[in-house]
Design a protein that fits this description.
492 residues, alpha/beta, D-Maltodextrin-Binding Protein, domain 2, four-stranded mixed beta sheet, 21 helices, 16 strands, 43% helix, disordered N terminus, disordered C terminus
């Protein structure tokens, strides 16, 4: 075993030495992009490897819904003359490449969110990529590429290939709208129910449902990915300098306290399950059986919601085809409703503003431990082609990062592409320090939600100053976690 590890260590040392040489700043060209830099030319040079096997780590949904099997079959057919065979890595989707990769355990290609993939950059566990060679390059907006951008020694590198945009979306049951919604809940007569267009009406309608013993809008305030957007919409942010400067923590920036105040008000129309992740875990089944009117989730969960609704319709006696058709007719996925500019969801005269989401970009990266980098790159190029991203959209209901697929698919995909391009999706930071934001934020959000169910004389958040101080505490806890408690964490 010691000999085996020594061989692996020697191979790793050689690989990282090559990587390190490529990362040296080119004094002749200044901040040269990785797409034309010497490091990628060295890593991805030579002929395509033949008779090799490459392990693909995909997310669980893509495997369960059959997309990965279709992708692998198509790729293997395309590259059969080279003897290249792609296979399911059959590993946990949250594999730790940094710990497992050096000992030969890990995939050649990984599919994960940008913040998950980019944490491997500092240790050089994933390769920078020659993205200009890829078919998808011109079709993906710069904001999506930026999620995979890293800077070393004054040069910029791109270490992942965007596939789909992730951001919170509103799912609601059209068949659970009030019968009189077109006359009583469509003030602007645009054919869209007011309660799914703005939070003032969503609050009012959900309150009516709650008083009648039902549940309207439901989501786990505890979930930072969903709740952060309520802070961002009023000026909050994670890190400064486009999420690169972890010394500048901005959850309390601007008027973010208005978002915190609004969240507490929303908690009151839900139940105490919003204090933790219970609603998130129950969302599929509860929306599926009609217990909830509306929830927040991500686009890639669309097919899971459809499946739950279909099962419930089948229990009511419909055939499988009838149940699926009815589920697709009654499940609507749309943008998060507009927010009141003053943060008061009881003020019907408030001007409305756009919700700015915390989002992510899921995509592919290539392990620095692969023995077949060119074959791995060929797979990434194939998997991010128009045909395969369109197929992924058909299977999983994703919002494609490719402009051509987004426009062809229309609807949700085009909507999210436009929001990303227009700056209404704030992509999660792609630096290691982001791992320290979750616990402080969850602690605050849980306490905030719990406050709605405390007796008034025991509540912690009653004034604007209370909300501001709560967010300031979040900032301090994050800073301390990065710089005081973890002295090895460097800036960015």
């Amino acid at each position: 075993m010691k000999g085996y590890k020594r061989i692996i260590s020697m191979a790793l040392a050689f690989s990282l030495a090559l990587y390190g040489v490529g990362c040296e700043k080119n004094s002749d060209s200044g901040n040269s992009d990785v797409v034309s830099g010497n490091i990628t030319d060295k890593i991805f040079s030579g002929d395509l490897e033949r008779n090799v096997r490459i392990n693909i780590l995909e997310n669980d949904t893509a495997i369960e819904k059959g997309y990965l099997a279709e992708l692998i079959a198509a790729f293997n057919e395309e590259y059969k003359d080279y003897g290249i065979v792609a296979v399911d890595a059959n590993m946990d989707q949250y594999l730790d490449l940094a710990n497992d990769g050096p000992y030969g355990y890990g995939p050649d290609v990984l599919y994960q969110a940008n913040d998950m993939l980019m944490k491997y950059v500092e240790g050089k566990h994933i390769y920078p990529l020659p993205v200009q060679r890829l078919d998808c390059y011109q079709q993906i907006p710069q904001s999506a590429w930026d999620a995979y951008k890293s800077e070393m020694d004054g040069s910029e590198y791109i270490c992942g290939v965007p596939v789909n945009v992730q951001a919170p979306m509103l799912y609601y049951r059209k068949d659970l709208l009030p019968e009189n919604w077109e006359t009583n809940w469509d003030d602007d007569k645009n054919g869209i129910p007011d309660m799914v267009e703005n939070f003032n009406d969503m609050y009012r309608y959900s309150n009516e449902l709650k008083l009648s013993g039902k549940q309207g809008f439901m989501f786990s305030i505890y979930e930072v990915y969903f709740s952060a957007g309520f802070l961002f919409s009023y000026g909050g942010y994670v890190f400064g300098d486009n999420n690169k400067d972890s010394q500048d923590i901005g959850f309390n920036n601007g008027e973010a306290y208005k978002g915190a105040r609004l969240l507490k008000k929303l908690a009151g129309i839900m139940n105490e399950e919003t204090i933790d992740d219970t609603i998130t875990r129950n969302a599929y089944g509860k929306l599926g059986d009609g217990s909830y009117f509306a929830v927040i989730s991500t686009p890639d969960n669309y097919t899971t919601f459809i499946d739950e609704m279909k099962l419930n319709y089948q229990k009511q006696g419909l055939s499988e085809d009838e149940a699926k058709a009815k589920a697709e007719e009654n499940l609507v996925i749309t943008s998060i409703p507009l927010l009141p500019e003053d943060g008061d969801i009881t003020n019907d005269n408030s001007k409305m503003v756009e919700y700015k989401a915390m989002g992510g970009i899921n995509g592919y990266a290539i392990s620095a431990y692969t023995k077949a980098p060119n074959a791995a790159l060929a797979f990434v190029d194939f998997a991010t082609s128009y045909e395969m991203v369109k197929l992924r959209s058909d299977f999983l209901g994703i919002a494609a990062a490719r402009e051509d697929v987004a426009k062809e698919t229309g609807g949700l995909s085009e909507m999210l592409y436009t929001k990303l391009s227009n700056g209404y999706i704030d992509i999660m930071p792609s630096i290691r320090a982001v791992s320290q934001i979750w616990t402080p934020c969850q602690t605050f959000l849980s306490d905030l939600a719990k406050d709605a169910f405390r007796p008034e004389d025991e509540q912690k958040f009653l004034t604007d100053d209370d909300f501001k101080k709560g967010l300031e505490t979040v900032n301090k806890q994050i800073y301390d976690a990065i710089y005081t408690l973890n002295s090895s964490e460097s800036k960015g």
